[in-house]
Amino acid sequence: MRPALRLTRVVTPVAAVLLTTAVAACAPAEDEPEQSGKSASADECAVADLPLVKDGVLTVGTDSPAYEPWFVDNDPSNGEGFESAVAYAIAEEMGFAADEVEWVTVPFNNSYKPGAKNFDFDINQISVNPEREKSVDFSDGYYSAAQAVIVLEDSPAAAATSLADLAKFKIGAQTGTTSLTAIRDVIKPEQDPLVFQNTNNAKQAMLNGQVDAIIADLPTAFYISAAEIEDSTLLGQFQYDGAEPEEFGLLFEQGNELLPCVNRALAALKEDGTLADLEQKWLSDVVSVPELK
Predict the structure, then answer these.
(1) Taking a C-beta distance cutoff of 8 angstroms, is the pair 221, 149 a contact?
(2) How far is CA 19 from the centre of its chain?
(3) How far apart are the C-alpha atoms of 25 and 173, rounded to whole Å?
(4) Is 205 exposed, middle or buried (0-12, 13-18, 19+ CB in 10 A)?
(5) Rounded to an integer, what distance in angstroms lies between the CA atom of residue 133 and that of residue 131?
(6) Cα–Cα distance, 284 to 278 (Å, whole number)
(7) What is the pTM of this model?
(8) What are the structural domain ranges in the chain?
(9) CB 241 within 8 A of CB 102
(10) Which of 4, 51, 69, 187 lies 20 to 30 Å from 75, alpha-carbon distance?
(11) How many whole angstroms separate alpha carbon 178 and alpha carbon 147?
């Protein structure tokens, strides 16, 4: 990864420290799964017949920088990191070779704006929610994640044992993310949360003492704490609005007819265990993280 700000030395390999509450969902065994009501048959999903942005090429969008553990070395095209690996697994399942996948940069906040897209789908830890679904379409979920709280070990915030305790402190997150919404709706801090353009800015703000804690999805929070910010710790995790873990989905231009074929590929990857294997490889297994209530 090439972060915009050099924060600390990396203290341990990501593969050894990334532990999540990942839920490896199982798809139905039928050829035409109906998880979202948007699926297709094999005959309808021949590569030559797919409605692609660029003929014969699967164009995939994500942000830059592309953070670990979702991508490695800020290079989505290397197939390393969970989301890069998922994108290439979907492409292969759909009949594309690796060299028939092209990546384009799409800023996170621009991805779910209304209008035409220059990609076939975007993969960038984008949570499926009703507000975004007014402007774009989403695939079935490919990952579920809780929110997590990162603090410095010597910070007064490190003594918090509940969301009510945490509400007394200055908290920040990246703009446009579910993490920011969760701060406002779940933690409900006494002070307005600080909003940052990207995760690197949020991390540096905590090191500078501008915020006492930052919020991120659990896998990202593990990586930040274990490999990027020395003397930091994960205070705990919590679910957004007390619901089941939120789903990340692939994002499509609204009405994109490619969506049913991508859902078909996703269902196959869930059914044969590929998606679970990729979670295990890049995000590791289940760990007991304190739950904040």
Answers:
(1) yes
(2) 15
(3) 28
(4) middle
(5) 5
(6) 9
(7) 0.75
(8) 14-28+35-145+247-283, 147-242
(9) no
(10) 51
(11) 9
CATH code for the structural domain at 14-28+35-145+247-283? 3.40.190.10
* Rounded-to-integer distance, Cα 150 and Cα 148, Å: 7
Question: 147-242: which CATH topology?
Answer: D-Maltodextrin-Binding Protein; domain 2 (3.40.190)
CA distance 139 to 264: 10
Give the tokens for residue 9. Answer: 């030395």
User: Cα separations (Å) of 38 from 32, 114, 234, 262?
Assistant: 9, 20, 38, 9
Region for 236 from its dihedrals, namely left if φ exceeds 0, alpha if ψ lies in -120 to 50, beta otherwise: left
Q: Edge to edge, what strands does the sheet with 246-253 contain?
A: 101-105, 58-62, 121-122, 246-253, 136-145
What's the full length of the chain, in residues? 293
pLDDT tens per residue across span 12-70? 333 333 433 333 333 333 333 334 445 677 778 999 999 999 999 999 999 999 989 99
Instruction: Judge contact between 232 and 154, C-beta under 8 A.
Output: no
Cα(199)–Cα(162) distance, integer angstroms = 24
